[in-house]
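Let's study my pick:
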Amino acid sequence: MRVRDFLKYALAAGIFALGTQLAPAADETVQLKGLRGGTPVTQDNAPVASHQERDHPVADRDFVQQPPLIPHNTAGYQITKNYNKCMDCHAWQKAKYTGATKVSVTHFRTREGQELDNISPRRYFCTQCHVPQTDAKPLVENNFKRARGLQ
């Protein structure tokens, strides 16, 4: 009987001690600060004031597999399943006349490595990887350094 009573009191004391440790933590509110600020997820923030830069030389890349940035304004460029405005200048047949950068040969391969005579459907929508250069400021401070091989 004594051992059983001792275990009851020990268990009760343990539960009491644990409860007193957890109670203050439940009262403290944690303030999280994300990039959205106080804006609820169901609502969009106003776009940051920046503008696409006009035509200029292509920017240097910061990491090895970085897709090139678009060095010109793309406002009004249409890319649908039937038409891609980018190909008016960047298609291999037109690039030599327009002076634009030709589409990379990697864009003519399927996922399985098969070579196509036209842009692969998985690479057709340019802006899923390539973005226009802007004068936007970084959203968070950072000390990012370019890949050593690109310096």
Observations:
- The radius of gyration is 29 Å.
